[in-house]
Design brief:
ion transport, about 85% helix
């Protein structure tokens, strides 16, 4: 009875208040990031469907890079959240330092590839020469953003894990305003600036990412944040601690990278149908991200809040807390999906579509809206529940197998072999979410993910 009473002390009102303090800034930051992409696409899209398609396939390379970095830092965030549960900032700094070592090394490879081989990269995602030619300028001009992001992502993860979620929000807001202003100047040649078109959008994004990195370093070291410490402390990690982190982070890295590659191949399959279909998918993905990335903040909040309790050794409490977080995620997923359907048409009217393209886009948005609850449910379980307890290997297998054994084959089969209409092809790919949902639900109730990783 005493144990049950302890579990029932999770007060819904108190939980919602705490979750709002953690999740809302993350949601707003995600919304700003998605809005930045929307502004990019709206401005570039006004130049034509070919330009919109070129930017759409070009950013897939950056998307894969970001997912790789996000995957690795998600694995390190398990330790950061649990160390925060016992207020061990020394080990949090060492974890950040090790994450930086890895992310900067990997990003250097992406940077050099973008500078030297942009045409080869774009051939992975499209078969149209005019799209490759337009996109290559974007990829090359934006190449330094890889290095800036390599520094920003680990520090953002650390700030979130230590429940300082407002700082990344403010910094993202500044980057958004900078990017939007520079887009206006450089895409259209406003106020005497050179008219660079697609390359101007890339240059604006690169400068904004540089500002974002500078601000986050200033807030941590210049303002003496609680993460601040001697530089040597960040890189004082031992071989044993690095191995421990790698064992947890490699599955999350593979998970997010393979998921990113897989979803990029969805875009590649759909874009090969035609320029109009590719532009419709790109616009819908951008609008969908406005809603779904904000909803995904529940997964990040779950990792932070439940991970903290696991670090404190309150395993039963953490399990019950995770249950409530999953239920909240389902409600938010349903609400976000409904809002996407309601506001989809007005948002699509902002794009310069042909009648055929607008029709395709509206039907694709309806598919995204009707299935969003399942997508968010899976995200909360994979990025929140399973990762907070270090169950990253199972999370990786569930996601990667669903995407590559179900989603990718279905995308190419329906789009290129069966030649289904684009909206039916997009719907068919959602079968991967069904398969993934069954797997993660069984794992959740098994309780095999309920572990304290910092005491192992």
């Amino acid at each position: 009875m005493k144990k049950e009473a302890t579990l029932n002390t999770i007060n819904n009102k108190s939980l919602l208040k705490t979750m709002a303090a953690v999740a809302l800034p993350i949601a707003l930051q995600s919304l700003i990031g998605s809005s930045l992409n929307l502004v990019d696409n709206l401005m570039v899209g006004s130049l034509g469907e070919a330009e919109l398609n070129a930017v759409g396939v070009s950013v897939q390379f950056y998307f894969v890079h970001w997912m790789l970095l996000y995957g690795f830092t998600s694995g390190t965030a398990t330790f950061m959240a649990q160390y925060f549960g016992v207020k061990d900032f020394h080990n949090i700094r060492k974890t950040v330092g090790f994450a930086l070592t890895v992310t900067v090394s990997v990003s250097m490879l992406f940077f050099l590839t973008a500078l030297i081989f942009p045409h080869y990269v774009l051939r992975i995602f499209t078969r149209f020469p005019e799209i490759i030619e337009l996109g290559s300028g974007y990829v090359r001009a934006c190449a330094p953003a890889f290095l800036f992001t390599a520094v920003t992502v680990p520090f953002t993860s650390a700030l979130r894990a230590t429940q300082q979620t407002r700082l990344p929000l403010y910094i993202s807001g500044a980057a958004f305003l900078t990017n939007t202003f520079l887009n206006y100047l450089l895409i259209f040649g406003s106020w005497g600036a050179p008219k660079l078109g697609v390359a101007g959008a890339a240059l604006a994004t690169m400068i904004a990412r540089g500002l974002e990195m500078s601000l986050i370093l200033y807030m941590v070291f210049g303002r003496k944040n609680k993460l601040c410490g001697p530089i040597r402390e960040f890189f004082s990690y031992t071989k044993s601690s690095a191995v421990k982190i790698v064992k947890n982070a490699v599955p999350t890295t593979i998970n997010e990278t393979m998921w990113g590659l897989g979803t990029s191949l969805y875009v590649a399959a759909f874009a090969r149908i035609g320029v109009t279909e590719g532009a419709a998918v790109q616009a819908c993905s951008t609008i969908n991200n406005l809603f779904i990335m904000a909803a995904f903040s529940i997964g990040d909040a779950t990792l932070i809040l439940v991970g903290q309790k696991l670090g404190e050794g309150k395993l039963d409490y953490a399990y019950q807390l995770a249950k409530k977080m999953v239920k909240i995620g389902l409600v938010i997923g349903l609400a976000a999906g409904g809002l996407l359907i309601v506001f989809g048409k007005p948002l699509l009217s902002l794009f310069e579509f042909t009648d055929r393209g607008a029709h395709f886009a509206l039907l694709i948005l309806i598919v995204y809206g009707c299935t969003m609850w399942l997508t968010v449910y899976n995200a909360v379980n994979v990025t929140g529940v399973l990762r907070c307890g270090g169950d990253t290997r199972f999370a990786m297998l569930a996601e990667v197998l669903a995407v590559w054994c179900v989603g990718v084959p279905v995308a190419f089969l329906t789009a290129l072999v069966l030649q289904w209409p684009i909206y039916f092809a997009v719907l068919a790919v959602k079968l991967e979410d069904v398969v993934k949902g069954i797997a993660v639900t069984k794992r959740f109730f098994s309780k095999k993910w309920v572990k304290n990783v910092i005491s192992e």
